[in-house]
Predict the 3D structure of the following.
Amino acid sequence: MQQEQAYEQPRKKKKVRHFYDYSLLFCIIFLTAFGLVMIYSASAYTAQLEYKGNAAYFMMRQAKIAAGGFVLMIIISKMDYHFFGKFALPAYGMSYILMIAVSLVGKEVNGKRRWLGVGPLSFQPTEFVKIALIVMLAALITELGSNINKWKNMGFIMLLTIPIAGIEAGNNLSSGIIIFGIAFVMLFVACKVKWPFFTAGALGLGVLAGAGPIGLALNKIGLLQDYQFRRIEAWLNPESDPTDKGFQVLQGLYAIGTGGLTGQGLGESIQKLGFLPEAQNDMIFSIICEELGLFGAISVILIFLFMIYRFMLIAGNAPDLFGALLVVGVMGHIAIQVILNIAVVTNTIPNTGITLPFISYGGTSVLFLMMEMGMVLSVSNQIRLEK
């Protein structure tokens, strides 16, 4: 009897182990650090001229915001991602308020209103819109469940997206495309019926092929601004006006062509010495090509592809649909923005003024990207590991 009691001792409960995607974390750290190096390389000459010899001005500003964003990312990654769903509708409503505000009272830079702020403190509301839309659509699609496959519900999702994307497109066409693309990707993943999405993709390619005549027609009726149409003209024939409309495109292509296979060497770019406008911003990929060559450019693309793979892995193993859709939304954002930036720099599509995630200079962009990465890591942290 005593022996039986000895064998019937209560068993210790196994501690549940949770996954945390350190591979994705490494990608984020690498891309951010690489971005700081390339920002310094691309902007040192301009910074010395504009900021009293301070060659590291742009790099140090980016580093400070990236460091703060990294801390915020780690904090968010340790939170329960369901917490963000509680603020889905208020954040979506705030998106409209911010976009209307920037259209009316935003700071005008290079003829475009993209910034809100007072004095030296400012931010781009479009970055908030992207993350708010991801959370709102993830919560709404989760609430709809299998009913998302009904046409009226699919249309409802797009009706929620099109107005905010349209308002943004008036200020920044590329951001409007990204906002619409995020909803497109999330719906594509959530819906069983796929043919409407492939049809829409084919129509998009058709519009791109006929961008010249379509752009001219939209410009005449006032739906396309003059500066936006000039970008289409520069895309179709940059050599027609090499000192004005086609200047940035041609200088970027010169940088890419000069790089060759292995590049001119880190810091040895010629185009950044006052020839290539926005070298540390939209056109930083061309500086990567010039200094690190085809090898460096492909390496950067492969890092982004590996990041996309990690997103897919986390989404596929997420504890619930809401978590999976959060990751899919972030994945769509990063993928679309990378594709658009590289396509613009290589003159595959008209110049739309879009940054390369984690690498281009932009404090607001890197801060909100870190917040998105925090949400993705939060989802990964809720995945249970089974032996």
Remarks:
- Strands lie at 17-18, 107-109, 112-118, 121-123, 384-385.
